[in-house]
Structures are given as structure tokens and as C-alpha cells.
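Quick sanity check, Binding-protein-dependent transport systems inner membrane component:
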Amino acid sequence: MLGTKLDKLTKTRRSELPQLLDRARWKIIGREADKGLLFKCFIYLILLDAAYIYLKPVFHMLATMLKNPGDLLDPSVKWFPNTLYLGNLQEAWEWLKYPKALGISLTLSLSVAVLQTISCAVTGYAFARLKIPFKRLLFGCLLLTFIVPMQVTILPNIIYARELGMLNTIYPIIVPAFFGLGLKGALFVIIYRQFFSTQPKELEEAARIDGAGVFKIFYKVMMPLARPAILVVFLFSFVWTWNDFYLPSMYLSDIETAPLSMGISRIASALRQQAEVYGPSVTDEAIRMATTFLMIIPPMLLYLFTQRWFIEGVERTGLVE
């Protein structure tokens, strides 16, 4: 009797074995390519690698700038200093003349971002919805700005700026933004064009029936719908201008207090000259890290408060699928 029950149990388990193997295989491999455990492990591995590559320099910057000279000389102190030391931040603050440099960077970045957001919206709407002569040719010329590098046109622009008395001022950087010129302007026009092209034409037709003209349709109907694109363009332009080193170094090389994007190179140059005279100091690297921290903290705070709208805007403007 007992032997019969054992035989039945064995047969039952043998019959269930293929099903269990199938379940285990589908759980590991997945019925679709992106559903299995192996694929998820691979994705997590890639994400961890990417996070390590991007976050390690940030952690190194924070750890180095908070070390005192004793911790910097101690090889056993790598990531966590024994005491939090703010002297490097204070020194970088004074070298940069931080309040004034921050004001210049904010003025420059906000002015360029606001002007490019408006001018590129008008141009993008015209390319997307209006019937204008030679539209394809003009759009081809716009795409050419991706090919012509900024370095090719910088010398004539510097000469014109000097003749107009605008050298060593921020106007040579701000004025072109009003016309949406350059690589940034072309990219933002394409973002707006892509967004306006996806809006239903019935909205404009209904506004025309109510007697609205082109400008009224643009400002009253299309611009309120374009908030995601406006936010994306504004943030892209702000961060791009904030981090830009090339144009300020061309137009603002002789001013006493430079934008923060030039501060790192100026402090690095000053530390190098100081090392040549007095020898290298153990705090040089920590001061450089503190300078970098002071430069990136404003855009990081901006992104922290606008992250949700920024991601939503990127998705709705078609920049990512």
C-alpha cells in the first residue's frame, strides 16, 4: 500500500517536472526579450556602471573639498574626512569673488535663456505652421548652423564687437540670442517646430473662425500649449550658457570679475603661478574642488526644483521616446 502511494507521488512529480522547468526558464529568460530576470540583471548592471562613472567624480569633489590639510596628507583618509573643514570653500569663495561672479553668471544665463526661449518659439512656429516663401531653403540654412563651427565666425564677431564698443561686456553674448543664432538656436527652433507640428490644426481653424490673426493664435492658443517645450528650451539654454567657457573667454577676457565658468581656469592659472613661486601646496586640489562645487550648485538646485516638469517636457517634445 505504501509502495503504491510512493509510486503515484513519484509519477506525479515526474509529470510536473517539465512544467516546473518551463516556469523557471520563462522566469529567467522571459517570454519577451525585456521581461526576463537576465535582462533585468543586465539593465541594473548597466545602470550601476553608469551611476558609478557619473557619481564617483562628484563624491571625490565633495570629499576632497571638505578635508583639512591633515586629512589631505593622510593616505588612510580617502572618502570620509575626520572633521568637516570649510576653509577650502571659504578660500575659493574669496578667490572667485563669488557674489559678483554669481550675479554676472545669472544675468548672462537668464538673459540668454529668456531671449532664446521667445525668439526660437516664434521661428519654430513659423517653420511648423505658416506658409512662407522659401521655407525649405530657410530651414536648410538653419540646419547648416549645425555644420559651421562657432570658432569659424568668432574672429569677425570679435572685430564687430570691438568696433561697436561692446567688447568686455556681456552684450555680444546676449544680442545673438535675441535672433536665435548659433548651434543652440538651431536646436531650440527644431524642438519648437517638432512640438508645434504635433498640435491639432483644428485649434487654429477654430481661432480663425473667431476672428483671431496669426499673432493672436500664436500667443493666445499655441504658446499656452507649448509650456513643456518652453521649459525644456529654457533649462537647456540656461545650463548651456552657464557652463559655456568659450564665448566668455573670447569676449570677457579683460574684465576683473569673470563669470563662474571662467573662474575655474583663472583659479587654476593662479594656483599654478603660485606653485611656481612658492612650491605646490597640499590644498591646491581641494580649492579646485571647492571652486567646481560653487560653480555647479546653482544649476543643480534649479534642476532639483524643476526635475518633474523637465522630464515631462522632454517626453512631450519628442526628444526621447
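Posting the structure with no commentary besides this: The mean pLDDT is 82.
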